[in-house]
Each structure stands twice: as structure tokens, then as C-alpha cells.
Amino acid sequence: MLLQEAKKGCEEAFIKLFYQYRPIIYRVQGKYSIKDFDREDWMQIGRIVLQESIEKYQETRSTTFGVFFRTNFENRIKSYLRYQHASKRQAHAEAVSLEEKLAYDGTDFLNQWMSPSAGVLSQLMIEEAVEDVRLYFSSFEQEVLSAYIRGKELKEIAEEKELPFRKVRGAYDRAKTKLIKHIQENSV
């Protein structure tokens, strides 16, 4: 019913459909990272692809509209990724599918990113991921992980806080495990 109304140009029906299928946009956004794309860019591409999907969808097909939209949206995002990775634009490309990274390197790539010698970009990416799961950390785990990401060694953190090294190491390991679990759950 909404789909037919949206096909006829009803803006209200389009908006309702957009809110109904917005979780698909979030799911795909969780799978891929596109350089210089912010939340509003993802939503704009979602609106464009939704409109195109409404116009092209045929109810006689053996697939639902949701699957049709998801396929179209994911294909559009993959096109953006291909564009970024084209050889003549390679200098500007930094998008990598988190799912691909986990499949290829496993969670070991986090060990490299979470070391004090990691690059600034890697540290920023981890800090953003940490922001997403901050409520899962205890305040102590949060303090230890934040200090470590900023470049402090675990031994140095223990000395500053006048705590046993094993306690600081335990907090770091728990926070890292929670972060890895969050990334794995949100990359599927």
C-alpha cells in the first residue's frame, strides 16, 4: 500500500518507507567505511536509492521490496568503494570494509592499531570505535584504554595510578575483548 502510494509520488508515503527501511542503511554503514562520508551522506544516498528502487520495483518479482532496496543500496555503496579504489585515484582511497579486514586478518589487526606506535589515523579510528562501546566499559577500563590509546605503556599507567601492573593489564584485556566483540557483532 505504502509502496504504491510512493510510486504515485506521495511524499508522506516515501517518508514512511524511508523510516521503515532506514535500518538497512545503518547495517550497510556498519559494514563499510567510505572516506569523507558522514551520517547525512549515508542518509542522502539512502533516499536516492530508495526513490530509484520505488520506481524500478516490480511486484511480480519473486523478491520483497526490502531485499530489492538492500541489494540496490549495497551495490551503490560498493560502486563508491570501487571509485575510491580506482588506480588513478589511489592516493585518495582509504576505505576498507571492516568485514573484509576481520575475515583476512582476524582480530589481530586491532593489536597493531592499539599499540602506542600506531599511526594517528589508526588511533583516531580506534577512539571512534571506543566511543561507540564506552557504556560497556567500567570507568577503570575506560581510563586504562584511553591512556593506552593516547600512547602510554601499561607499565607507565600502573605507575601513575600506583596500582599493580596485573590490575592495569586485566582492565586493558577486558576492554580490548569488549571492543573486539562489539566490532565483530556489528560487522556481520
Helix proportion range? over 70%
Q: Report strand %.
A: under 5%
Output the helix-strand order: HHHHHHHHHH
How many β-strands, per DSSP?
Answer: 0
Radius of gyration: 21 Å
Structural class: mainly alpha
Mean pLDDT across all amino acids: 76
| Principal-axis shape | elongated
Give the uncertain stretches in residue-range form.
91-95
Number of helices: 10
Distance between the termini: 31 Å
Q: The biggest beta sheet, please?
A: none
Structure description:
This protein is mainly alpha-helical and 188 residues long. Helix content is 72%, strand content 0%. α2 (11-31) crosses α4.
Entry summary:
By secondary structure, the chain is mainly α. 72% of the residues lie in helices and 0% in strands.
What is the topology?
Layout: H1 2-7, H2 11-31, H3 39-56, H4 65-85, H5 98-105, H6 108-113, H7 120-133, H8 139-149, H9 154-161, H10 165-186
Helix pairs in contact: 2-3, 2-4, 3-4, 8-10, 9-10
Q: Can you tag this structure with a few keywords?
A:
about 190 residues, mainly alpha, about 0% strand, elongated
